[in-house]
Design goal:
This protein has 311 residues and is α/β, with parallel strands linked by helices. The protein is built from ten helices and ten strands. The protein has a domain of 42 residues. Helix 3 crosses helix 4, helix 3 packs parallel to helix 6 and helix 4 crosses helix 6.
């Protein structure tokens, strides 16, 4: 699913003495099936933008265009294909039939809130994961299959976890239960608002790897919010960087590396890029950051490159 946002603005409590501008005339396009890192400080507007994409709030101005995929040939994501479906969500009032189509689309977008374990409420893991599918009036057999599949995808052994109380699990396990609850709804796109927040370093790595593997296996378009670019650097295809209620960068890893090379963007680079810039300044590395893009994705690949030029 491709998402195009045009001149989006949102004002909280608009028309009251307490109104506050949250995002200000932003435009960007999210490529289909990309893994997108959404970066920015608290209050920069990133969460509001994601809530607009999910349809949780309505734009004050502007529109969001959802580009569906060609069902005849899922590999063909060309925007001019006649079978691609277009959905438009705007600040203007829309006809009921268009609104119904949008609501069906929004139901296919999974949204994992920050600290999602706080939203767990059922007595057992199985019941919590089954809550969404049951509300869609699925048969008991289909609900069970969706729950079992979601638990398998998130590494929760059914025989071990299904009847356990979610509140007796570790923080990382509870977060996997929350993610499984969304997977059971069979989303086509996933939005994750700081999914690693509050986890220890080992749990962060496990959860991040799991999210990326699900992204690849289920062919999602994935938007993942983080305050720390190092957490998502090696997975990311595309970046959205928010600052002062605007998007000050939207582009690929290569484009972001070019901006860092030119010192033309105020976004702190990941540790490996910082090291590469330092070694460039000392004359140890002659290649540009773009030439080193693949080597800079992981510590092992960059270490192998350094051994090759030093030894």
């Amino acid at each position: 699913m491709q998402i195009q946002c045009k001149n989006l603005s949102y004002i909280y409590q608009q028309g009251t003495p307490f109104e506050e501008l949250a995002i200000d005339d932003i435009s960007f396009t999210i490529p289909s099936r990309s893994f997108v890192s959404v970066l920015g400080r608290t209050g920069s507007g990133k969460t509001t933008a994601l809530q607009l994409i999910k349809g949780l709030i309505k734009p004050s101005t502007g529109e969001i265009i959802y580009q569906g995929e060609n069902h005849e040939n899922p590999a063909d994501n060309s925007t001019n294909h006649s079978d691609n479906k277009l959905y438009v969500f705007s600040a203007t009032k829309q006809p009921r039939n268009e609104r119904n189509r949008l609501e069906a689309l929004w139901n296919s977008i999974g949204y994992l809130f920050q600290y999602p374990e706080h939203q767990l409420f059922e007595e057992t893991v199985e019941a919590d994961i089954a809550y969404g599918p049951k509300n869609l009036k699925y048969t008991d057999d289909k609900v069970h299959k969706l729950v079992a599949s979601a638990m398998e995808l998130t590494g929760l052994e059914y025989s071990e976890f299904a009847k356990r109380a979610p509140f007796q699990l570790s923080g990382g396990q509870m977060r996997r239960v929350a993610l499984a609850g969304i997977l059971a709804m069979e989303p086509k796109m996933m939005i994750l608002d700081e999914p690693m927040a509050g986890l220890d370093s080992v749990s962060k790595v496990r959860l991040t790897n799991m999210i990326y593997n699900l992204h690849k296996e289920l062919r999602w378009t994935t938007l993942c919010v983080s305050h720390h670019i190092d957490e998502l650097w090696k997975y990311t295809d595309y970046y959205l960087v928010f600052a002062d209620k605007k998007v000050n960068f939207a582009g690929t890893s290569s484009q972001l590396l070019d901006r860092w090379q030119e010192r033309s963007i105020e976004v702190e680079p990941p540790s490996l890029v910082k090291l590469a810039l330092s070694l460039q300044a000392k004359g140890i590395i002659q290649k540009s950051l773009i030439e080193l893009e693949e080597e800079l994705k992981t510590e092992d690949s960059f270490a192998a490159y350094l051994r090759g030029i030093i030894c």
